[in-house]
Amino acid sequence: MVLYQGGRRRSSVSVCLVLISIVWIGMADSSPKLGVEGDSSSSTTPAAVSESAVHIIYTEQPPNNEEPESFHIRTLASVFGSEDAAKEALIYSYKNAASGFSAKLTPQQVLEISKQPGVLQVVPSRTLQLHSGPAKLH
Fold first, then answer.
1. What is the DSSP string of 105-132?
2. Model confidence at 138, in pLDDT bands (50, 70, 90)?
3. Quick check: keyword rRNA-binding in the entry (predicted)?
4. How confident is the model at residue 24, as a pLDDT?
5. What residues does each domain of the chain span?
6. Which residues contact 91 (CB under 8 A, 6 or more apart)?
7. How many C-beta neighbours within 10 Å does residue 109 have?
8. What is the C-alpha to C-alpha distance for residues 31 and 23, in angstroms, rounded to an integer?
9. Partners of 106 in the β-ladder
10. Predicted local confidence at residue 125, as pLDDT
C-alpha cells in the first residue's frame, strides 16, 4: 500500500512505524499505581525501607523568605520525625525553575507528605532513555 500526501509518496511501513511509536510512548508514560491505602506498616521497618523509591515533591514557595532547603527539610521532618532522618532522605532541593525537592520515600510516607501544608504534588521520579534511530545527528 502506498499513500500520497502533498505530492510525496509514503509507504505503509512509515505509517506503521509512526503508529507503533505513538503506542510505545503512551505505554512508557503510564506510571505505576501506589496501592497503599490502608497500609498499616511502620515506615521504619526493614520491609518499608526496601519499598522506598525516589519521589519529586512539588511545593509552594517557602513562606517568609525562608531558605528553600530549610523549608524542604522541615516538611520532610514532619513525616520522618527528625531533621536528621529528613536530611538523610533528601536528595535534591529545587530552587530556581520550580519549588520542591526529591527524596526517597516509602508508599506510606508518600501518603503522609502529600497531606502536609504547602505540598502541591508528589510524583515518582522516573528515568527515561532517549532512543535514536540509525541516522547520526548532525
1. E-HHHHHHHHTSTTEEEEEE--------
2. low
3. no
4. 42
5. 1-30, 46-124
6. 54, 101, 102, 103, 104
7. 22
8. 15
9. none
10. 93
* Reduced DSSP (H G I as helix, E B as strand, rest coil) percent helix, strand, coil of the chain, to 5: 40, 25, 40
The closest alpha carbon to 77, from 48, 116, 51, belongs to 116
State the pLDDT confidence band at 25, using cuts at 50, 70 and 90.
very low
User: What is the third-level CATH fold of 46-124?
Assistant: Alpha-Beta Plaits (3.30.70)
CA 120/CA 60 separation, integer angstroms: 7
Q: Are 16 and 22 in contact (CB under 8 A)?
A: no
Helix H segments across the chain?
12-29, 46-50, 68-80, 83-89, 107-114
- 513525616: which residue's cell? 79
Return the axis-axis angle of helices 107-114 and 68-80, rounded to nearest 10°: 120
The residues near 69 (Cβ < 8 Å, ≥ 6 apart) are 90, 93, 95, 101
